[in-house]
Write a structure and sequence with these properties.
This protein is of the alpha+beta class and about 650 residues long. The protein has 13 helices and 40 strands. It has a 17-stranded antiparallel beta sheet that branches. Helix 9 links the parallel strand 28 and strand 29. Helix 4 packs parallel to helix 5.
Length: about 650
């Protein structure tokens, strides 16, 4: 009888008290406490600071909820520490992937895998269901902050979005059911001013996640439902006329997207994080040696309007030859032929009659410049055979525009496109797109995404908004901001209209963007005539690599300033950008990252003495520096600083 009572009490206690699992990062700085009772919840700690409290997760299927009343049947813990080499290295040519992992296996054929990194945590669902296809009606992603945090958000009014809205700032206690939802990534400031970046990776055959406030200091993931029927809506979009009541119909046996949180004590750590890459699928292209990141001259922003020339400029053959000549003169790999190159936006096989496209392709070959063609996503969908045709023509890549959605169908469209493009050794640049979420590593011919409030937005591309990009949008993957304005203005006097498009901020600010911002395909958005007239600036810009061996964040505060050093081979570049909250900012920078046995020629471009008023004012300096030196960097409001450091021979 006593034995029976003991067994009864033991069974009773297991059901009353939650089962706990603990997972810590390799250095012990971050801890996840997982509770299994009526549901799966977890809390996250950075040292003694509670970052999240009882976050919850589950997957709602048609006839069951994975994560409700979980029955643990097994678990596996291990530590992984490996080195990976990205095909397109935007930060590091060798990336460390070091984490502790805990995979919890539950009754009903599903698992939840947690990872703890020294700079964050992540989890994902894994299912091994009998049915071939499973309808996912919802996914519960509930985040609870223990106190009021500050949230930096890109809020949108609907799931139809190009992820180009300006960032907003609000308290998590005010992010509620009455406020608009936000795209990912979301950046949180804790009460201790630590940073948390929320995003996702390995997004495949599933909709993108958005975040919605539901109560003070409580937010949840929300997802677009699967579209079922469509009708035409112009030449570049389709209107969804009906939806399913589920968010995804997908394989019963699969890995679901990673939900991740980069957690840092210092803002500058966000600039060095590689979490999206660490959680993404490995490269699927057997031989990716043909993939060539690089810079590209672009005609749309300046309305194809060279001047001081002996031909009528516009979207015509002579103008494109001028762009090819410009690219060739400065070692730029590509030119883009944007909207206007084809006779019709719906027919990708018939060029504009003012253009002999095949003649231009041959002309470019002689000049070592390849051509990229712009298309609407709808035209690509209707003509998937264009990749073979374009490859036969000699086209290097495509810029695909106006998707403006991230439901399951559209996420799958992205993957279908990059797979088909890869078959014909072509790269892709997505505009009107959602944010990067790992596809660019599985298919590294996907060189960049827009999904950012870039220079196309003219006056909307404020310096204050752009100062969040290295910490948010660019912190999750490549970003086609389209920098390079040679007409520069302070915000209070800003005016801009094509063909005389202008950039907000100083000249040095624009130049520094090539070092600070990351993209496998980096635009030169301005008029070649303007670049010729500003030759020393153009020479600097076109010597900045698009891929890097090493990245070191020097000084940073999200939304205010970012100062970063990057290495390619034995050359170093330094880029700094600054918002307008102070008239000037000064920094002392140690050059201890340089080789101690070498002397370096440093060419710098700095804000001129009048740049706070006349933003085009800059100063070029050249000097010798060594590893033991400290240099002083000064940036005016909305200013910048850029330098190239080359070992002296």
């Amino acid at each position: 009888m006593k034995q029976f009572i003991f067994l009864f009490l033991m069974f009773f206690s297991v059901n009353i008290f939650a089962q706990k699992e603990i997972l810590s990062s390799p250095d012990g700085s971050i801890k996840i406490q997982i509770n299994l009772k009526d549901s799966i919840t977890y809390s996250v700690f950075l040292g003694n600071e509670k970052i999240f409290e009882n976050n919850s997760l589950n997957l709602k299927l048609k006839d069951q909820v994975l994560g409700k009343q979980p029955k643990l049947i097994g678990k596996k813990a291990e530590q992984v520490n490996k080195q990976d080499k990205p095909v397109v290295p935007l930060k590091f040519s060798t990336v460390t992937n070091h984490y502790n992992t805990l995979k919890l296996n539950f009754k009903d054929n599903y698992s939840v895998e947690f990872r703890a990194y020294n700079n964050g945590v992540a989890y994902r669902f894994i299912t091994d269901l009998k049915q071939t296809d499973s309808e996912i009606f919802d996914e519960e992603f509930i985040v609870n902050t223990p106190t009021n945090f500050t949230a930096h958000l890109q809020q949108v009014g609907s799931f139809k979005t190009s992820y180009e809205d300006a960032y907003s700032k609000m308290n998590t206690q005010d992010f509620n059911s009455q406020t608009k939802m936000a795209t990912l990534p979301v950046l949180l400031n804790t009460a201790q001013d630590h940073k948390i970046l929320i995003s996702e990776s390995n997004l495949t055959d599933y909709p993108a996640m958005f975040l919605k406030g539901i109560a003070p200091n409580k937010m949840k993931g929300v997802f677009p439902k699967v579209p079922l029927t469509f009708e035409d809506e112009g030449d570049r979009s389709m209107k969804i006329t009906s939806h399913a009541n589920y968010i995804a119909k997908t394989a019963g046996k699969r890995n679901f997207p990673w939900r991740y949180f980069v957690i840092t004590k210092e803002d500058k750590q966000l600039l060095e994080n590689t979490m999206t890459y660490n959680l993404a699928e490995a490269n699927k292209i057997k031989d990716p040696s043909w993939i060539k990141p690089g810079q590209v001259s672009w005609e749309w922003w300046n309305d194809a309007s060279p001047y001081h020339v002996d031909f009528v400029s516009g979207y015509n053959e002579e103008t494109y030859k001028y762009y090819i000549d410009f690219a060739s003169n400065f070692g730029i790999s590509y030119i883009i032929m944007d909207e206007g190159w084809a006779k019709s936006t719906t027919d990708p096989f018939t060029p504009n009659p003012n253009i002999d496209l095949f003649k231009l392709i041959e002309y470019g070959k002689k000049k070592n410049v390849k051509i990229v063609l712009w298309l609407t996503w709808l035209t690509v969908e209707h003509h998937f055979d264009l990749f073979k045709t374009f490859s036969d023509w000699g086209i290097a890549g495509v810029k695909i525009d106006f998707m403006d959605r991230s439901d399951q169908w559209m996420v799958n469209y992205y993957e279908r496109v990059v797979k088909e493009a890869a078959k014909y050794k072509m790269f892709v640049d997505f505009h009107g797109s959602f944010k990067p979420a790992g596809l660019e590593y599985a298919y590294p011919n996907l060189l960049s995404y827009e999904g950012v409030r870039g220079l196309e937005q003219m006056g909307g591309a404020t310096v204050s908004n752009s100062l969040y990009l290295p910490f948010m949008r660019n912190a999750v993957g490549p970003m086609d901001f389209t920098p390079g304005a040679m007409i520069n203005m302070q915000p209070e006097v800003y005016r801009s209209e094509r063909p005389n498009s202008a950039g907000m901020g100083t000249r040095a600010f624009q130049m520094a963007l090539y070092v600070v911002f990351e993209s496998g395909l980096q635009m030169l958005a301005d008029n070649p005539t303007n670049y010729y007239q500003n030759k020393e600036c153009t020479e600097f810009i076109t010597q900045v690599p698009t891929t890097w061996d090493e990245t070191i964040a020097l000084e940073a505060k999200a939304g205010e300033y970012a100062l970063i050093a990057k290495r390619k081979g034995d050359q170093w570049f330094i880029g700094g950008i600054n918002n307008g909250s102070q008239e000037n900012r000064e920094f002392k920078v140690k050059l201890d990252f340089l080789d101690k046995n070498k002397e370096y020629d440093m060419t710098s471009f700095e804000d001129g003495i009048n740049a706070g008023r006349q933003a085009m004012d800059y100063k070029k300096q050249q000097r010798l520096v060594k590893q033991e030196q400290v240099i002083f960097i000064k940036m005016v409001k909305n200013g910048g600083w850029a330098a190239r450091l080359t070992p002296k021979k």
